[in-house]
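Progress against Task 2.4 (sequence-to-structure conversion) is shown through the following example record, which the project officer requested during the mid-term review.
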Amino acid sequence: MKRIQKKFTIVGNWKMNPDTVGEARKFFSAISRRAAKNSKVAVVIAPPMSFISILSGKKIHISGQDVSAELRGAYTGSVSARQVRSAGAEYAIIGHSERRAAGDNNKIIAQKTAQALDAGLRVILCVGEIERDNHARYLREIREQITTVLSNLSDKKKIQWITIAYEPVWAVGKNYDTALKPADIHEMTIYIKKIVSEIFGKKIGLKTPVIYGGSLNSENTQMILKEAFVEGLLVGRQSLDPEAFGNIIEYANDLS
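Structure tokens generated for the chain above:
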């Protein structure tokens, strides 16, 4: 199957890294230089909340790593979607596997998604199974993760501001030989678009971007971008390596 040329979205999730403002600026500056040379790619960086307001670049979009399910109030330690937007972010990652492991269920993720969209943020909605089974129960798990969020959108037009990130938890930390193969990722991309199509119709379902995250490294990113028919990648650890992350951006640009 011949790849249809498209603009990839490459998202770097820094998680709770780096330690200092100086390091954050250094990494961001280096990535910005690579992004400027590869303008066909949409590059998104999700730094810790404390760094959002100090990082800005014409070729890089900023994302929050999470938002509160609440609008405002006595929620010590929480950050609202409006605060994330006001700090300078354009995106928010919602439902990341690490947030789900910390207690976020589908209902909370639906609430967070609604808050982010209402605040004017684009949403990167993470979905994925904890483990795979021979009875395909994991497919029902993914369906529920998606439908709980999308079926509760107050404004159905806001689906256009959502990118779905397929992030199979069991695949995180796997090596090259045991990680998901491009064909498997492609199958899940089709399945995810099918679920969206059932809610919003085939036209919107096919247009909804699906990106992949899970044990991405220099060995497999090129092959996944070329053969898995995803619209981008959600990169963790390697997004803190400007050289490695820059290479991913460059390869995506060459395919666009």
